[in-house]
Prior knowledge:
Blueprint (H helix, E strand, L loop, with lengths): L1 H19 L1 H24 L9 H12 L2 H34 L1 H6 L1 H9 L2 H12 L3 H25 L3 H9 L4 H38 L5 H10 L3 H29 L1 H13 L1
Helix pairs in contact: 1-2, 3-12, 4-8, 4-10, 4-11, 7-8, 8-10, 9-10, 10-11, 10-12, 11-12, 12-13
Membrane topology: Multi-pass membrane protein
Family: Belongs to the binding-protein-dependent transport system permease family.
Keywords: Cell membrane, Membrane, Transmembrane, Transmembrane helix, Transport
Amino acid sequence: MTAKKETSLPAGRIRDLLYRRPEIVFSVLLLILIIGGWEAIIALFNIPPILVPAPSAIARSLWANLTTPRFYSHVGVTLWEILAGFAIGSVVGLFIGVCIGQWKMLEKTVYPYIVAFQTVPKVAIAPLIVIWFGYGIMSKVVITALIAFFPVVVNCIAGMNAASYQQVDMLRSFTATRWQVFRMVKIQAAMPFIFAGLDIAIVLAVIGAIVGEFIGAQAGLGFLLLQRNFSMDTAGTFAILIVLSAIGMILHLLMNMIRRRIVFWNERDEILAQGSS
């Protein structure tokens, strides 16, 4: 009876998980299906590993990296470039976005130049940044900041413009100052937009750091990617790409956790809207 109870317990947990979070179960099943099909196709058609490696070869290369202490120093370099560039780009983006959202004249005079600068491919100016700031971490941080700041600017401006005109007019009728209107209405309306921009920026920061390391670096995951490519180590390349994807996903999840903590009223409004529909 005890054995039967113990064997039925995992099945009950699986059913409970399937009922509560079906998207997790189906996502895991889809991943297993993709990996299994990939491995089968490689074995069936005898595809050379230099073209497309098997998932098992990628897993071995990934494990070899994770068990090498030197690998984590490269991860640390890239992670520092990501976080520093994201922080600088976000602060600059918030400052510019708030200024443009507060003064409409800036939206007509300054914002077009920001958009024009954003259309310039950062890969094209990355060599210049490396020349100006050197092959060290600073040039990678600058490139990352340039790539990350634009979505913060755009979303901050959109959030400031999304403030309720009725609330703004009411506060102004009570002779509220520009700072009071900003603090009581505009910044609260902009917070969900700002965090949406920060979420995009933190993911783009990963790309920015790798772009900078591709141009010229002495350490980092982008540096390792170039080494793997030059040595025709396709499985090693895929393994590093998996690590980069994991870093991006973790940063995305952390940003969502922070957003739920700070912009809690937006989560509450979404729940109420779903309940009333």
